[in-house]
């Protein structure tokens, strides 16, 4: 196996509420939803109406500009609502699930025996293509591209992240089948990046048809963007694809069983959860039944699909995001704090040592969604550099995005970053600047200008 | 504190859009957010945020300035009684210093914050915290004999021309406190040099020039090396006093020890850039050593390089002025180059131009001007590295 690459820059945010590795039972959710807003840059066109009956794997909508990419229903049942937002933007396509799932049938085959085109076709038809994302731009991959490599990060270093070993437990075969399918899609290699301290299961170390690379270190070491930067940085014109291990399982199941089976485990985490643990659910499921009886009831809370750095806020009866394996519940924190900026701050977490909490480095914190300050112009420098382990100048990149200087953005590395890679920059920002939004804006601008 | 919160919540609508005092919204918010960290929560991006904000950052810097301030108060009294040839109790010394210095601080904050509030109000912006630090820096780099109205005019000039015309906190290109001092220096030169301004109400017979001024006088000294040595022995030999700060000079600049305590606070808290501080000292020492080697006149020959680092405003500038994140270089490598050049130029100007014995201010302002250029080349370096990678891969 290759040498271990250590990521030194970054920040581990220790929070209360890590999920225990037990699989708890919750009532199956009655409704499921696919949210077009989970896919940046997508213009969805509906294929179904309210009351249409669907099977698991039937298309709900497709990409207006790339009609071959389908987004399919995770369960069988009836479309009960198409929720829209401003300017009739589609927010959710909601399905009422049948008691027993009926699957649309797809071709069952050993991916090793199929051609690239056949693998692609199956994935596009079944809706699995949406899991394959590309860098640059961090959007769904273009099917007609051939990437120079495919990268898979097998560990997640984000706060309270789910343990991917546990998510994949007992599914090594499906995982291998998924990897075999992926290997068909590139002329280069499939890089499976593991952390020897976190990934103890054989699922990864015994994986075939892939290159296993080892990484250790603090967050964002588990971000695939950081790993790509270490292994084979993206230059102008390069395309690489990324996919998460949990989603490789779905691909494996498709080829093994011929069904679009997107049942998955999720970690229920966060300080406002009574017993943080793992739950079985299906992609797009409502989180209501999982949260039921698990919430501490003393405070206003915020439910997040995903982790606290990159996740999306959802209502207590909202739906799991398309790419998320984690539900986090934290206090809302919309309260005034008397002289909060001046107090010693033993309960506050900060990268700087301006709060005395630095005396207790291993403490776990109960952090809320308060900004702890107000938006300001850029004042401090050097903060972002401490948490971005890439040869990229984050402050300068963000400034070039703010002034929409495309040449400068290109030169400073917009192709290499995804919003999630700069999430920590946003976390530590003294001036409370919305770094991830800006990165996404910059990417959108690049997509518009370059195509 | 609930009652206070209730009171604020009750009055708040008056200051919001459509309220009776809507025009005073910025001022109300400034007071409200001073008392309470607001209840704003994140709506996009990361859900949790680092606890630090600009108020905390600025208050840490003010905290780091306290040792220099306290020492300045003591030294003001000490120099006063020393010049009169009197001995005084510790408390008397401190009280005298406080009476001299407090008005300068009050004037600086009242004028500066007044203008800040007015600008925020006019623009409908929030009041930024930047002046919390500038308001403390300005008094500390003034001579104790500075007339209050001149302090007021300099402060006003610094806030308006040094900062607000560029858009306020975070947008300025020069360090506002140094703009105040530069204005003072060039507008009222007689109040910023010579030997009468550095000691409050001194006896006429007592020489009150700073060690730097004495040192500068060596540059065109024509009395033979024996006489030069006697000047050094008389005024500069006590390096310990210079290090501790018991010498005439600007209020907060004299004590290297007090400044180093501030430096430790800034570096430990992660607010001040150790890269800039260290490289300023290295730069100053390097230039001093070069002068020692060349040794064209008594100044260059007889003042050892390290003494430059404890004389005048060198240490203060290195720790508190050069590190201003807004006007300094912003890239990691840029900071090192920027700091080195400040130290280098400060000693160069100091020694080569007797007209500007206190050259630290000029060196920092000059490098403030060039900081974006330094950053530009550092950024280009990064871009080139990236482009090279393409060729390697291809």
From TrEMBL, chain A:
Residues annotated as domain Na(+)-translocating NADH-quinone reductase subunit A C-terminal: 266-314
Entry's EC annotation: 7.2.1.1
Annotated InterPro entries: NqrA, NQRA_2nd, NqrA_C_domain, NQRA_N
EC category: translocase
Positions of the NqrA N-terminal barrel-sandwich hybrid domain: 6-98
Record keyword Transferase present: no
Reaction(s) the record says it catalyses: a ubiquinone + n Na(+)(in) + NADH + H(+) = a ubiquinol + n Na(+)(out) + NAD(+)
Keywords, sorted A to Z: Ion transport, NAD, Sodium, Sodium transport, Translocase, Transport, Ubiquinone
Keyword Acyltransferase listed: no
All copies of domain NqrA second alpha/beta, residue ranges: 114-259
Family: Belongs to the NqrA family.
Oligomeric and partner information: Composed of six subunits; NqrA, NqrB, NqrC, NqrD, NqrE and NqrF.
Function, as annotated: NQR complex catalyzes the reduction of ubiquinone-1 to ubiquinol by two successive reactions, coupled with the transport of Na(+) ions from the cytoplasm to the periplasm. NqrA to NqrE are probably involved in the second step, the conversion of ubisemiquinone to ubiquinol.
NCBIfam families: nqrA, PRK05352.1-4
Name of the protein in its database record: Na(+)-translocating NADH-quinone reductase subunit A
Automatic annotation (TrEMBL), chain B:
Location of the protein in the cell: Cell membrane
NCBIfam families membership: nqrB, PRK05349.1
Keywords: Cell inner membrane, Cell membrane, Flavoprotein, FMN, Ion transport, Membrane, NAD, Phosphoprotein, Sodium, Sodium transport, Translocase, Transmembrane, Transmembrane helix, Transport, Ubiquinone
Catalytic activity: a ubiquinone + n Na(+)(in) + NADH + H(+) = a ubiquinol + n Na(+)(out) + NAD(+)
Transmembrane segments: 57-75, 95-119, 131-161, 246-268, 280-299, 305-323, 335-353, 359-379
Organism of derivation: Paralabilibaculum antarcticum
Self-association state and partner proteins as the record states: Composed of six subunits; NqrA, NqrB, NqrC, NqrD, NqrE and NqrF.
Cofactor: FMN
Function: NQR complex catalyzes the reduction of ubiquinone-1 to ubiquinol by two successive reactions, coupled with the transport of Na(+) ions from the cytoplasm to the periplasm. NqrA to NqrE are probably involved in the second step, the conversion of ubisemiquinone to ubiquinol.
Origin organism lineage: Bacteria, Pseudomonadati, Bacteroidota, Bacteroidia, Marinilabiliales
Protein name: Na(+)-translocating NADH-quinone reductase subunit B
Mode of membrane association: Multi-pass membrane protein
Pfam family for this entry, one: NQR2_RnfD_RnfE
Family: Belongs to the NqrB/RnfD family.
InterPro entries membership: NqrB, NqrB/RnfD
